[in-house]
Write a structure and sequence with these properties.
The structure is a single chain. Helix content is 46%, strand content 16%. It is α/β, with parallel strands linked by helices. Helix 1 (2-15) packs across helix 5 and helix 10 packs parallel to helix 12 (321-339). It is globular, with a radius of gyration of 21 Å. Residues 1-7 have low confidence and may be disordered.
Length: 347
Amino acid sequence: MLYHGAMILAKDMLAIRPVFAVTVTYGDRFSLVQRVVEGALKAGVDRVVIVDNASEHTSAEALREFASHMGSRVVLLRQPENLGSAGGFARGIQYAFEAGAEFLWLLDDDNLPDTFALERLALAYAYLGSNPLNVLSSFRLGQSSQARILVSAKEEQLRPNAFMTIHIATLPQLLSRFFHRPRAWTAFAPDSVRFPLVPVPTATYGGLFFHRTWVERVGLPNEALYLYMDDIEYSLRFAEKGGKLYLCAFSLIRDLTPSWNEGDASPWFSPQASETRLYYILRNAAWLGRKRATILPLYLAHVALFFVFFFLGAIKKRLPWPFFVRRLRLYIRAVRDGLRNRLGHLP
């Protein structure tokens, strides 16, 4: 029985060859990306493409030495400037596609895959019929939104004309979250999984697994978005072109560093939250929502509702007036830039 199962697994793994992992790094993060690359190779990828987004000198030198030591299994693409996640993944995906990858597996530079993460993606892909239209996403342990999906099989739907998750149809839920502390999902027990494969409307770069034909269908990430929401926009194109996205519960990835807003229910009000991040998220969300809107006045009403919630939250949290005014100006500028198609990298 074990022999039979091993033969099936071996066949499934062969069917997805070659697999290229693509990761993007920046700053001083060599110690992280080294572990991710070694983990991806241990999981069974054929090659790892590292896009070095103008890392600091020490990390850049270490990356060069590491790639040289690893030989043909690791390709290093050094960029003279930081292209953001959108530009970095665009370069990596393009290289993997042109180099003959049959499947691509995207990983953030702190996404350490479990030893069996790729095998389980192969099994899930085979279980779904080995159809290239199916796109999979590994489960990132510690991501509370993904944990909720796997336990309940419920995902916040992408409603037409919504801004972020704000929509008149979900107003009762939004008010409930606003006035009550949301349930914490900091811990996740694998035995609590009820749905090993759950359809999802979008996915992040971290763990995204897809057939090479998708590069021909949807192209590359939109570099004008630079940071944040670019992965959501990219995965939306898969769905718009007939793809079916699934979150795979047993293909595990462990984040080596916590997400910047994980555990913070209100990053919009937090002095510790990066204002650059908040700007890109809001700007790109405004642009993407406007692009997908079918009833513009309704969409703009949902944008206005975001500011109502921000105002009420500021009162509830007793934000200092100067801080409130600064954040309000930032959010207004971000939304205005997104609605007016002012994209690209902040100067």
